[in-house]
């Protein structure tokens, strides 16, 4: 999903409907283990996972006894072995399992921007959004991603982002933090850093980076970097999840950005699945142009196995194309051939 304002890319989410992050889901869970030292409790969830319920997210801030069933809402996606974050501050209703799925990015953005035109290239998606938005006429079936938008969003999958006039931003996500380096590439330092600050703020949103973030500007003394802090604060002013903490002793800007959904680099962590789904999307576009053409997808064994692990995606392709796609194991050099 892409959010555009006056033709400029303002938001981007890559979501896999058959592997949702669960944020916004309403479900029933059982208190499995109270953890006073963590000021909360671990909760057994319907999908076999374990979530965490802080005591501050329970009415009266008192956790019920172990074994108690509660109606819960997922407020944050799982992260690096840590379960989903939960709240019990919602109406307690009977039922079992997942009672209601949370909205995806397309629906969240459509609700947040009630004047926006919503384009979807799939008839079923158009129908889904119209049902969710009470038949709104602003939902239209059309090519949602043209070639330019495909190229721009594909660039977000790379660790570096080129800057106009030279230089680039380099993103290095680590388990504990994300480091972002500005490489001037020999261009003027002051101008490159000013351009980098504006683009850095945009990339935070597009990549949905979260947790501790360090920004290392190109060159400049600590005093010169400090002089650019107002520009950085202004660039981040409309990004609610981000808090600029200032410059640390190493001369790096320190930020903290709230995590709700998985950042883009986590969604893309399974490289075989990412490559396979990209090939499947390409095959779907080719099938739409030439419906009578039979397609075979050639890819390394790991990519084929990843696609086979998501049969719903293959079934969706077959429904749209009118026939299944043939999967063939090939050498690594064929990973981009469909």
From TrEMBL:
InterPro entries: RNA-bd_AU-1/RNase_E/G, RNase_E/G, S1_domain. Residues 24-89 form the S1 motif domain. It holds the Pfam family RNase_E_G. Keywords: Cell inner membrane, Cell membrane, Endonuclease, Hydrolase, Magnesium, Membrane, Metal-binding, Nuclease, RNA-binding. Its cofactor is Mg(2+). PANTHER family: RIBONUCLEASE, RIBONUCLEASE E_G-LIKE PROTEIN, CHLOROPLASTIC. This is Ribonuclease E/G. It comes from Roseococcus pinisoli.
């Amino acid at each position: 999903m892409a959010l555009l304002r006056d033709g400029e890319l303002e938001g981007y989410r890559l979501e896999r409907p058959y592997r949702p992050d669960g944020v916004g889901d309403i479900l029933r869970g059982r208190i499995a283990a109270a953890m006073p030292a963590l000021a909360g409790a671990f909760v057994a969830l319907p999908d076999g996972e374990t979530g965490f319920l802080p005591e501050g997210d329970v009415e009266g801030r008192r956790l019920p006894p172990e074994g108690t069933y509660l109606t819960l809402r997922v407020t944050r996606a799982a992260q690096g072995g840590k379960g989903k974050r939960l709240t019990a501050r919602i109406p307690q209703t009977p039922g079992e399992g997942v009672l209601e799925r949370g909205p995806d990015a397309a629906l969240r953005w459509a609700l947040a921007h009630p004047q926006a035109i919503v384009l979807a290239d799939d008839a079923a998606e158009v129908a889904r959004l119209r049902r969710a938005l009470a038949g709104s006429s602003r939902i239209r079936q059309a090519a949602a991603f043209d070639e330019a938008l495909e190229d721009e969003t594909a660039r977000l999958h790379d660790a570096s982002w080129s800057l106009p006039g030279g230089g680039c931003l380099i993103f290095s996500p680590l388990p504990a933090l994300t480091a972002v380096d500005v490489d001037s590439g020999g261009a003027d330092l002051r101008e490159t850093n000013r351009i980098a600050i504006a683009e850095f703020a945009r990339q935070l949103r597009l990549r949905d980076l979260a947790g501790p973030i360090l920004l290392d500007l190109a060159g400049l003394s600590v005093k010169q970097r400090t002089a650019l802090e107002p520009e950085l604060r202004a660039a981040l002013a409309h990004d609610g999840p981000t808090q600029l903490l200032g410059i640390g002793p190493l001369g790096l800007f320190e930020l903290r950005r709230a995590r709700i959904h998985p950042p883009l680099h986590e969604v893309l962590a399974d490289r075989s699945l990412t490559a396979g789904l990209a090939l499947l999307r390409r095959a779907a576009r080719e099938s739409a142009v030439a419906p009578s053409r039979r397609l075979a997808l050639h890819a390394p064994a790991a990519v084929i196995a990843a696609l086979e692990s998501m049969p719903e995606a293959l079934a969706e392709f077959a429904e749209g194309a009118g026939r299944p796609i043939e999967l063939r194991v090939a050498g690594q050099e064929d990973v981009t051939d469909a």
